[in-house]
Amino acid sequence: MSEVPRTGCAETMDALREELQRAAEERSVEGLPPYRPVEEPAPADDLVSESERILADRERTLGADHPDTLLARTNVGGACQQAGHTDRAVRLFEQILADGERVLGPDHPDTLTFRNNLAGGHEAAGDPARAVPLYEDALSGRERVLGPDDLRTLQCRDNLARAHELTDAPARAVPLHERTLSDRERTLGPGHPYTLLSRGNLAFAHHKAGNGELSAELFAHTLTGSERHLGSDHAATRHVRQLLTHVRSA
User: Fold this and answer.
1) Helix/strand/coil (H, E, C) string of 162-181?
2) 79 to 46, 110, 117, 166, 244: CA distances (angstroms)
3) Torsion angle defined by CA atoms of residues 166, 172, 177 and 180, in that order, rounded to the nearest 10 degrees
4) 219-235: buried (b, 16+ CB within 10 Å) or exposed (e) per residue?
5) What pTM was computed for the model?
6) 15-58 tens-digit pLDDT
7) Chain CA centroid to CA 23, Å
8) Model confidence pLDDT, tens digit, residues 197-218
9) Which of 27, 37, 200, 223 is the most exposed place for a label (fewest CB within 10 A)?
């Protein structure tokens, strides 16, 4: 097993989250397709240009306040964030949220998504403290409007927990991850990539909180599940294996 340098543990956890998110998005009714390497993505600035072109088309044909135009505008913000233009992304997300509240209302599911995205923009810009109250508001709204078991509600709770970790408050993240893990095991099953993600998130939060033995136990459980449901050679499985080695040697 290869060890993860202490400075690389968070980066490996981020890579695990990306792989499990991708696996969850690819999951079909029959199960997961065989693992295949990810194709090289398009350059981020090309995505910005393409999303801006789509937005211009929507504004011309549908108008500035049409719901599809608002969604196209938030895609521009997401592309800017992915390209590293975080200040522009935050400005766009702020305007989109204001537009969503005015056009759709504060409790519309899209408006709640815009609030979640603004929180993510602040987080990406290196200001997780500003993200926390926005995630809390988005989570409260999603629980009320969509229900506690909706996938978007559970994702928002994940986001809030991660923001607490980034503000050096892992003890606040732990109960959020515990609840999300319980909900995902109940609604999706123990082998779903999102369930594996929740268990890994909980393990990492315990690691940051200094609970090394419990963190290792949870990562070991995550590894068993990832090997069984994704395969021993899946990138997510390799990342879990690295993280388990790290916490055991800490």
Assistant:
1) HHHHHCCCHHHHHHHHHHHH
2) 9, 18, 12, 23, 33
3) -120
4) bbbbbebbbebbeeebb
5) 0.88
6) 999 999 999 988 643 443 333 434 445 567 789 999 999 999 99
7) 13
8) 999 999 999 999 999 999 999 9
9) 37
